[in-house]
Structures are given as structure tokens and as C-alpha cells.
Amino acid sequence: MEHVDEVIKIAKIVDRLKRIRRTGWLKSKIQHSETVSEHLHHTILMTILLRKYIELDIDWEKVYIMAALHDMGEAYVGDIPHPLKTEEDRRREREYLQEILRLFGVENLVEEIEDRYSLEHYIYKFGELLATYSQGIIYLEKGYRDPYIFEIISNTLERMEKIAIETGITKLRDIVSSLKKYYNEVV
Questions:
Q1: 1, 37, 94, 158: least buried by Cβ within 10 Å?
Q2: pLDDT at position 59, please?
């Protein structure tokens, strides 16, 4: 195989991500909490589901690629929660992400993943937040009740609502309304 070095390098990155637990869930005192790798997989599945719900004419391949790769830089910098991430942390993670995207031949997506707010960006981000929300609900239903779980879910719902408003996509607003209702029933 001609590109075995790249295959092995990517496999090693994925292996690291399988061992990095998501910090928010750790802070919530959840044993055996979700890893970054599991979160990426969950995000992809949620974006595929979104395609069914919102029926937009967008570049879905780009959405799936962004969903699959958006946190790959965390293999090198770890999972730093959004509110605690410094500009230096963001810069380092972005550099590593750029290098990883280059391996996949999609280095042009780094800006769209990190900064640029195309419709595809919004949809992948909504899918990521949907994955975080649903993982939080699973933890609540398993009996975990640390206050930080509630904070994560509330903040996630706020961010999803912001995306729904900014994009003007009614079906996203409907999804957020349903998620809020479900959350209120669980708590």
C-alpha cells in the first residue's frame, strides 16, 4: 500500500481520541464517560439524522466530513471545555486540526469548521450540539444528577436555539422546542 504511513498516523490519532474522555462529563462525575472518539461518531450520526429532518439542499458530504473531523486536534491538546479554552489553546488545536485535515485532503475546511459560518457549518455544529444534548439526556436517565450535567444541557440548548434563529430554519426551531420539552420532562 502506497500510503501506509498516513494510514498508521491517522490510526494513532484515532487511538488517542478513544482514550480522551470529554471533560464536561468527567466534571459531572460520570464514570466511564464518553470519549472524544465516541462524540465524533455520535455527531456524524446526528448530522445524518438531521438530513432526514430538515431536507436542505446543501453539501451534505462537507457536513459529514466536518462532523467526523472537527475535534481531531484534541488528540494533541486534549478536550478543553469551551468556556475555559484560551486563545492559545484554540490556536494550537487549530494548527493540529489543519495538519490532520491535510492528511485527509480537506485542509481547506479548517476555517469552515472553526470560524466561517456557512450553512454547512451551522448544520454540522447543530448536529454536534444534538449529540451533546442527547448524551446528557442519557446520563440523566441513567441517574446521574450532578448540577454540571444540567448546565451542559441548558447551555447546549441555548446554542442550538441561537443557530436555529441565525439560520432562520423553522425545522431547527421545532427540533429545539421538542428537545426543551423532553428535557423538562426528564428533569
A1: 1
A2: 97
Question: Taking a C-beta distance cutoff of 8 angstroms, is the pair 123, 63 a contact?
Answer: yes
**Mean pLDDT, residues 122-146 taken together:** 98
Torsion (CA) 62, 78, 154, 156 in degrees, nearest 10? -10
Q: What is the pLDDT, as a whole number, of residue 62?
A: 97
Q: Domains in the chain and their CATH numbers?
A: 4-186 (1.10.3210.10)
Split at pLDDT 50, 70, 90, the class of 163 is very high
- For residue 51, which of 182, 175, 179 has the smallest C-alpha distance? 175
Residues 6+ positions from 81 with CB-CB distance below 8 Å: 23, 24, 27
The whole-angstrom separation of Cα 74 and Cα 97 is 8
